[in-house]
Write a structure and sequence with these properties.
heterodimer; A: alpha+beta; 6-stranded antiparallel sheet; 48 helices; elongated; B: about 425 residues; alpha+beta; Clathrin_mu_CS (chain B); MHD (chain B)
């Protein structure tokens, strides 16, 4: 059947145009003509105007292709539809085209222009798909076009198109290897790409085109390590395998000292070769390994450590190939003490599909030879079930055998005993072999095993007996003198055993040890002589062998028998046997003609033979990279890259240092996690340029590893190698002494925090040159936001004790501010949500903190009075809200925040500010004015927002879609957000016609209120209602520049959307309170929160020498607390 | 990497082929078919074969062989894992993965394969993304398609691949938002003749079904995460959160997916829910044997054991069986020599029993090994390791989803040696 299918296929696969398919279905003769008709109507359908007909035709054609039928004669009709509008038709045409283009090169060229047009399409997905199909068409003539397309796509804006370009590289290479040099250039360029989307594909291209150009990796090594966790699964496998090879060429063997100590013999054997040209000193070194180890302690390269650390989490991948890739990386690269971590993950894979088990067990078998200890704890996981497929059973057996040692051998043998009874005879045979190997390896159990095997000789299954005989033979060879009774026993078996191999083994044993069984052996020969003609060839050879040996030792009894046997053999059909007989006759029977050799016949035949070594077929397989196809087959597969030996001395590690580029490539589309890392990566650069001291930096990476994150990413961009090493070492030691250093870390973190404001104010000057730097800084922030919130939290609880120490509160306020800054720009999503959560918890914490504060007079009266007051004031506030912006709004310019940076936004930059205008569609919303600037060269269309994600209760009124924003233009829009009186961010997607950006708007607490007009009397009355828990007081020292009335008012109104309570009025209508001295005025401000209309009252009472007291009264304590901080900051800066 | 793919049914017919590079004649499959003929069971065909010019890597799933042709070095697991992913995708799309269903949907299958591999390198393997590009067939849609001539290829270009959460479809909307989690634990055990545990461990998996609008960010925490020894995650799970806090934090894919698999640490003793008393013997004289199996509850944590089933692979010599079951019924397949006793619910008061005689081929030697018993069972509402989900929180969306967690314990590879 198979042969005929091959024949069919050749017909079907390679037949030229229009050749009918004779071979395909010989049973139904009519198929030939109907085929032709069918093709005709397909052509008709393809030519029609209706998409549905075309689609139907294409579906039928693709079905033919799928079945392997020849549809090549339809090529002209199909190719016409390549420009069809219908997407599905188009897709199917592509499928067809790629399949048959190679056969129909000329016609295929007709389609090229369509793809060339596609390459210029504004939509990235269309560009990518055009490149994909174009590069899949295997027509040599279009190589230059492909080359051009790839080059262009490699610098495309869209990472998806760049990924497609990476895929196209090996395609072009296989079509025309001449292009290699040019393609390497493209690969080099794409390797520098910083998106996870591209990384896997370009490394794959690298592996297929130029795996020997390891030098291209240097600059990208750290980046690849850091991106690894976010690359898609398949890319991870390729990258890890490549990095394993890379590491082998660049780093020192981490086990160098141990391996020399342990496998000293072996090493020196190799070593002597390598070192022949080296001086004597080196040889001395080898001799005194221990001293060398002392003299030259091994220090792991930080990059080596980086690789090991960043790959480790991938052991938890769901993808078996990724787990295996990491496992082999650890096996080949990790220090011996660390390799153990992979065992658990590999054992987990044994639960997977049987094919996965098969491959994993092969690799485990190889590993167990080198590192037995690693898998010993999982011994039982390799126990065999009767339902396992045979190949799995045999592999598990192999692993069990490799794991056997003095301590566990008894359990293993007991387990083996149950296996021997299995119905699967191949498996039983393998078990017997395994027992034999255990017996040779572990001296203690040799006799037990031998006895067990001898018992098996009486097994009813012949195969079992035969296998036992073969194994016993090998074992006996080790100590024959002790076991003559076993040999006798086996001699008796020869009557019954029919398996040739077993018979041959017994005969060999008897011949070899005929001195131990002098009486039986001639008799055996007699029997054998009788049945000689009916024996198998190997048995015949052994009979001749036995005869010769007996003739030499006991010629009296066996001379005639031997001659008889030799005569029979002389006329045997097999030339081997005839040859052997002739040869032996010459050797043992002395004649005149026989030469000198016959004198030595006895020595030749009865020489002591070394016992066979029973070793695992997996021994030394680890010279192949584990997990590879070559390892599995134990033969080099095509395209296999040898795993290089460790270098004697480490090559220069500085090649991996990356200079910081001023222009940041357009890597906007990166996954969130990656972004986080990018930020981390940039951090050291940033802190470097800011002149941050060395220790602080290493402290930074320390805190990283303490947080359980992959650290050291910092070393990527750092200017000098030594520095990164320093931080590396720091974090390494940190791992062990985590807890000890925790305290220290916190302090350092605080120090860092304090450093921040300086940097921030610098960046706020926002000159064009600083744009870049600012970006770095921004990026470096969210990474910190976690730790910031943490420490913010901590400090908050400190403020519970309500110290008025200004230093303390200052740092607190800064924390807040920075947090806001960090969140008001497009940050990485997960980080943000994390942060959000923690924030929420924090604000809850606030409440808890303040709850115990005693407030006896407040509550009962409050609830009664406030309700009437609210209604009372409502009318007022309404009219005020119209009035106030015009009259009382601060004159200073509104502070604007960045929503989307122009680089992240691919040319679109977005800023927002709180306009403090009432939002007319909904009074409960805060108006946010958004300013869009299109810095790109192309127009941006359909700007709108989507996918709004809010905390419960919050609402958003979207801005109307902006249909067109021409290049270089700026436009503004207003949206409303009901923040529900919380500073939770509103998250949404800003969409253009091509892209979506995740952005969030977080309001400063001061924007959550609207000003109201109150007289001083009213103010005091209200203030009286909001005492106790609702009142927060802070002492402060006013900034030098800020001691006059005007600045104070201005600063407060900038920080919060409040209106000033006219102060002169208190003289008129406030008899109870004596007016304060004129040189120490009191400033009062009032407002209401936007959503719940809770009153917010702020009082700043100035005193001598800039001292002041700030009081905030607000029903919403959280708002109050936050407002205090904001105003404090505004006044003290 | 992967050069070509052939789908072969269990009789050896090649019913689908797809090439990603130049065309390879299907004659290459002959090497495989030869080996397959020799192997008694299809499971015994080695997954990796070497031919003079190619390497063949195959998997066997649902009575189908997925055979891929490789020309150069590639990690075998890479290919195997990918082929399983292909089979999973078919399963996901068509509900089952059989020859007839693939033949019926050959165009969709072809489109899928086209998207999954580019030049032999995996391109889109996440089902959420694939579904955006190629809509899975439904009865309604196929009716509509035939009437209107519209297609099952998404007319919107897929954006999922470009998003920074590549496993999730964009713009998901549901009227009922729900998230269900099934904690399923399997007991793998080998018991010896006397009922002693030779080896036992618990493997668990959390299967999730999330139908949530927008971009929900979920956090799932356990009461006792220390139980978990070794875990593997869906790519959506943030590994760092797990490392530091032992909570699962993730933005889920849309629909069904496996959130995590775990292994319960070996320090914990494994509760074996049932005991098995068995006596199978073959007489030296006469051609018969005796069989007597009783199953009773052991450590069931007060829960009902359901779906109890015993499978015995009898020695070849056993011709027929004559048994009586006190509960449930049994079948004996003469061709495969498999005895299946379907018990159903386990009655703790009256342990079910199966006994009777086995008739052995006359003249054949007495089978020397007693067949092992494979036990299947199910216990609802119990995770045998004691793992408990503490809470599920959702961030990033304001609606309240309906949440549910279900526990189940099953017998995995549960074998009693006799």
């Amino acid at each position: 059947m198979s042969a005929s299918s091959a024949f069919n296929d050749e017909k079907g696969g390679s037949s030229s145009v229009g050749e009918p398919e004779y071979g395909h279905d010989p049973a139904s003769g009519g198929i030939f003509s109907s085929d032709y008709k069918r093709h005709d109507d397909l052509k008709e359908m393809l030519d029609s105007n209706k998409d549905s007909l075309k689609l139907e035709a294409m579906k039928r054609i693709v079905a033919m292709v799928a079945r392997g039928k020849n549809a090549s004669d339809l090529f002209p009709a199909v190719v016409k539809n390549v420009a069809c509008k219908n997407i599905e038709v188009k897709k199917l045409v592509y499928v067809y085209l790629v399949r048959y283009a190679e056969e129909q090169q000329d016609l295929a060229l007709l389609s090229i222009s369509t793809f060339q047009r596609g390459l210029k399409d504004p939509n990235q997905l269309i560009r990518a798909s055009a490149l994909r199909v174009l590069s899949s068409i295997r027509v040599t003539i279009i190589v230059p076009i492909m080359m051009l397309a790839i080059k262009e796509a490699a610098s495309d804006m869209s990472p998806y198109v760049r990924k497609t370009a990476a895929h196209a590289i090996p395609k072009l290479y296989s079509l025309d290897p001449e292009q290699k040099d040019q393609l390497i250039e493209v690969i080099e360029k794409l390797l520098a790409d910083k998106t996870t989307l591209v990384a896997g594909s370009v490394v794959m291209a690298f592996e297929e085109v130029c795996p020997e150009r390891i030098d291209l990796i240097h600059k990208n090594y750290r980046k690849l390590c850091n991106l690894l966790i976010d690359v898609e699964e398949w890319g991870q496998v390729v990258i890890i395998n490549m990095l394993t090879r890379y590491a082998r060429t660049q780093f020192l063997n981490p086990n160098i000292n141990e391996s020399l100590l342990e496998e000293g013999g072996e090493k020196t054997f190799y070593g002597s070769e390598e070192d022949e040209d080296e001086d004597d000193e080196d040889k001395d070194k080898k001799a005194e390994v221990a001293t060398m180890a002392k003299r030259k302690p091994y220090v792991m390269d930080p990059d080596h450590r980086l690789l090991l650390r960043n790959t480790k989490p991938l052991l938890q991948s769901r993808n078996a190939a990724v787990v295996m890739a990491v496992a082999q990386l650890y096996f080949h690269l990790a220090p011996k003490a660390e390799v153990g971590v992979i065992a658990k993950a590999l054992v987990r894979l044994l639960r997977s599909h049987s094919e996965v088990q098969y491959v994993v067990l092969q690799n485990v078998a190889t590993m167990t030879i080198k590192r037995r200890g690693m898998f010993e704890p999982y011994l039982k996981s390799f126990y065999i079930r009767s339902t396992d497929p045979t190949q799995i059973k045999v592999l598990k057996l192999e692993v069990l055998t490799n794991l056997a040692n003095e301590t566990n051998i008894s359990t293993i043998l007991r387990e083996f005993q149950t296996y021997i009874k299995s119905m699967d005879k191949d498996f039983v045979a393998a078990t017997i072999q395994a027992i034999g190997r255990c017996a040779t390896n572990i001296g203690e159990v040799r006799d037990t095993c031998l006895n067990g095997l001898v018992q098996l000789l009486s097994n009813r299954d012949e195969l079992v007996v035969a296998e036992s005989v073969v194994v016993i033979k090998k074992l006996l060879q080790m100590q024959p003198e002790k076991h003559s009774d076993i040999i006798k026993h086996m001699a008796k078996l020869i009557d019954n055993i029919q398996v040739p191999m077993a018979r041959a083994s017994i005969l060999w044993l008897i011949g070899e040890y005929c001195e131990h069984v002098p009486k039986i052996s001639p008799d055996v020969l007699r029997k054998m002589a009788k049945s000689f003609t009916n024996e198998e060839d190997i048995v015949k050879l052994q009979i001749i062998n036995l005869a010769a040996k007996l003739y030499l030792t006991n010629s009296k009894q066996t001379k005639l028998l031997t001659q008889y046997v030799l005569n029979l053999a002389k006329y045997d059909q097999n030339y081997d046997i005839r040859d052997r007989a002739r040869f032996i006759r010459q050797l043992i029977v002395p004649t005149e003609k026989s030469g000198a050799l016959s004198k030595y016949a006895k020595k030749l035949f009865l020489a002591l033979k070394p016992a066979p070594v029973l070793e695992s077929p997996f021994k030394d397989r680890d010279h192949f990279q584990l997990g590879s196809l070559s390892h599995l087959l134990n033969a080099k597969a095509g395209g296999y890259q040898e795993l290089p030996d460790w270098p004697e001395a480490a090559p220069d590690p500085s090649v991996r240092n990356v200079e910081v580029k001023e222009s940041v490539p357009e890597w906007t589309k990166c996954s969130s996690r990656e972004k986080r890392k990018e930020k981390k990566v940039e951090k050291p650069f940033y802190s470097d340029s800011e002149g941050e001291s060395g220790p602080t930096e290493s402290a930074d990476s320390e805190s990283d590893s303490a947080n359980g994150s992959e650290s050291v990413s910092g070393s990527e961009v750092s200017g000098s190698g030594s520095e990164s090493e320093e931080s590396e070492e720091g974090s390494e030691s940190e791992e062990e002494e985590e807890e000890e250093d925790e305290e220290k870390d916190k302090k350092k973190k605080k120090k860092e925090l304090k450093k921040k404001p300086v940097q921030e104010s610098e960046s706020e000057q926002s000159s064009e040159e600083e744009e870049e730097e600012r970006k770095h800084e921004r990026k470096s922030k969210p990474r910190k936001s976690d730790s910031e919130t943490e420490s913010g939290d901590e400090e908050e609880s400190e403020s519970e004790s309500s110290q008025s120490e200004s230093d303390e509160s200052e740092s607190e306020a800064e924390v807040k501010k920075k947090k806001k800054a960090a969140q008001s720009k497009p940050p990485a999503k997960p980080v943000k949500t994390d942060g959000k959560k923690e924030k929420k918890e924090m604000s809850l914490l606030d409440l808890d903190d303040f709850e115990p504060a005693p407030s006896p007079q407040v509550t009962p009266v409050n609830s009664f009075l406030s309700s009437s007051l609210v209604t009372d004031l409502e009318g007022l506030s309404l009219s005020d809200s119209v009035l106030s912006p015009a009259t009382i709004a601060p004159s200073s310019a509104l502070k604007s925040y960045e929503l989307l940076h122009r680089i992240t936004g691919e040319g679109l930059s977005v800023e927002y500010c709180f306009s403090r205008q009432p939002f007319s569609p909904d009074a409960n919303m805060v108006a946010v004015q958004i300013q869009f600037t299109n810095n790109a060269t192309s127009d941006t269309k359909n700007l709108h927002m989507e996918d709004v994600k809010l905390q419960s209760g919050m609402r958003v009124k979207e801005f109307p879609e902006i249909e067109l924003l021409p290049a270089g233009e700026t436009t503004t829009a207003v949206m409303g957000i009901d923040f529900c009186d919380s500073t939770q961010a509103a998250n949404f997607q800003l969409c253009t016609h091509t892209r979506k950006f995740f952005v969030s708007i977080q309001p400063p607490v001061g924007e959550l209120m609207r000003p109201i007009f109150l007289t001083e009397n009213e103010f005091k009355k209200e203030q009286g209602q909001l005492m106790g828990m609702n009142e927060i007081t802070e002492r402060l020292t006013l900034d030098v520049k800020c001691r006059n009335e005007h600045t104070i008012v201005q600063r407060v109104t900038t920080a919060a959307n409040l209106s000033r309570v006219p102060c002169g009025s208190d003289k008129e209508c406030s008899p109870p309170v004596p007016p304060p001295p004129p040189d120490h005025p009191v400033h009062r401000f009032a407002g209401r929160t936007v959503t719940s209309s809770s009153l917010v009252l702020v009082t700043v009472a100035t005193k001598e020498e800039g001292a002041a007291q700030l009081t905030v009264n607000c029903e919403k304590m959280v708002i109050g607390t936050m407002l205090v901080k904001d105003i404090l900051q505004a006044l003290t800066q | 990497m992967i050069h070509s793919l052939f789908l072969i049914n269990h009789t050896g017919d090649i019913f689908l082929e797809k090439h990603w590079k130049s065309v390879i004649s299907r004659g290459v499959c002959d090497y495989f078919l030869e080996v397959k003929e020799k192997a008694v069971e299809p499971e015994n065909v080695p997954p990796v074969l070497q031919t003079p010019h190619h390497y063949l890597i195959s998997i066997y799933r649902d009575k189908l062989f997925f055979l891929s042709v490789i020309q150069t070095e590639v990690p075998p697991l890479f290919v195997i894992e990918f082929l399983h992913r292909v089979a999973d995708t078919f399963q996901d799309y068509f509900g089952e993965c059989s020859e007839s269903i693939i033949k019926d949907n050959v165009v969709t299958v072809y489109e899928l394969l086209e998207e999954m591999l580019d030049n032999g390198f995996p391109l889109a393997t996440e089902s959420n993304i694939l579904k955006e590009m190629i809509k899975p067939p439904t009865i309604l849609r196929s009716v509509v398609n035939t009437l209107t001539g519209s297609s099952n290829v998404g007319d919107k270009l897929p954006t999922g691949q470009l998003s920074n959460i590549p496993w999730r479809r964009a713009a998901v909307k549901y009227t009922n938002n729900e998230a269900y989690f099934d904690v399923i634990e399997e007991i793998d055990a080998i018991l010896d003749k006397s009922g002693m545990t030779v080896f036992a461990e618990i493997q668990g998996v959390i299967e999730a079904c999330t139908r949530l609008s927008g971009m929900p960010d979920l956090t799932l925490s356990f009461m006792n995460p220390r139980l978990l020894d070794d875990v593997s995650f869906h790519p959506c799970v943030r590994f760092k959160r797990w490392e530091s806090e032992r909570v699962l934090s993730f933005i889920p894919p849309d629909g069904n997916f496996t959130l995590m698999t775990y292994h319960v640490s070996s320090q914990n003793l494994v509760a074996i829910p049932v005991y098995v008393k068995q006596n199978i013997s073959f007489f030296e004289t006469g051609s018969c044997g005796r069989l007597d199996i009783t199953i009773g509850p052991k450590q069931t944590m007060g829960k009902m054991v359901e779906g109890l089933m015993v499978t015995v692979h009898m020695p070849k010599a056993v011709l027929s069986v004559n048994l009586t079951a006190s509960q449930g019924n049994y079948t004996y397949d003469l061709a495969t020599k498999v005895l299946v006793w379907d018990i159903g619910k386990l009655n703790p008061q009256k342990p079910p029993n199966l006994r009777g005689t086995l008739s052995v081929q006359s003249g054949a030697p007495r089978p020397e090994e007693n067949p092992a018993l494979d036990i299947k069972l199910k216990i609802q509402q119990l995770a045998i390791s004691g793992l408990k989900v503490n809470r599920l929180d959702m961030y990033g969306e304001k609606y309240k989803p309906f949440k549910g967690v279900k526990y189940m314990t099953k017998a995995g590879k549960f074998q009693v040696r006799t």
